[in-house]
Design brief:
Helix 1 runs antiparallel to helix 2, helix 2 packs across helix 6 and helix 3 packs across helix 4. The protein has 6 helices and no strands. The chain is globular. It has one domain. It is mainly alpha-helical.
Length: 164
């Protein structure tokens, strides 16, 4: 008798975490705080690519990027390309990242997000859609500061619901 394959547990948790990340991205902020908004979707994507790279990878990153493109009104594929590159970098280094202390992970994630912001700046600069001031780079730094808390929350939820 062939045993039936049980559905993977926790798929809903991954989906809900991305929905919450998109909701936090859409959340209205005062004008002075808009450029300080963390890159919520990228942070959640990095976590899941690091925790379960066999379940969350380039396809999920591309899909989430397309959702961000539609939500933000950017060129279709702009955020998708950036998030796919972040997912690729994370999947290539997830075994090392897992053993880094949280502070070192946060610094590495800051570099990933600076790369993402640079890519977005190059694309918008090529299209000639405005210049940026120094606060353009702040999402990478605010994301770096929030990474330890996001990591701990998602790790505890992943362990509670046995996602592996």
């Amino acid at each position: 008798m062939i045993p039936l394959e049980q559905p993977k547990q926790g798929k809903w948790l991954i989906i809900v975490s991305f929905i919450i990340a998109i909701m936090l991205t859409v959340l209205p902020l005062p004008d002075w705080a808009v450029n300080w908004r963390p890159a919520w979707v990228a942070l959640v994507l990095i976590y899941w690519c690091m925790a379960v790279p066999d379940r969350v990878g380039l396809a999920v990153a591309w899909f989430m990027g397309l959702i961000l493109d539609v939500q933000q009104g950017t060129i279709l594929g702009q955020n998708a390309l950036g998030l796919a590159l972040i997912a690729f970098l994370t999947i290539k280094s997830y075994q090392r990242m897992r053993v880094y202390p949280l502070a070192q992970q946060a610094v590495l994630i800051c570099f990933y997000l600076l790369f993402y912001e640079l890519l977005m700046l190059l694309i918008t600069g090529y299209l000639g859609t405005g210049s940026r001031d120094w606060t353009y780079w702040m999402p990478a730094f605010t994301s770096m500061l929030l990474w330890p808390w996001l990591f701990i929350i998602l790790r505890d939820l992943r362990r509670k619901y046995h996602i592996s």
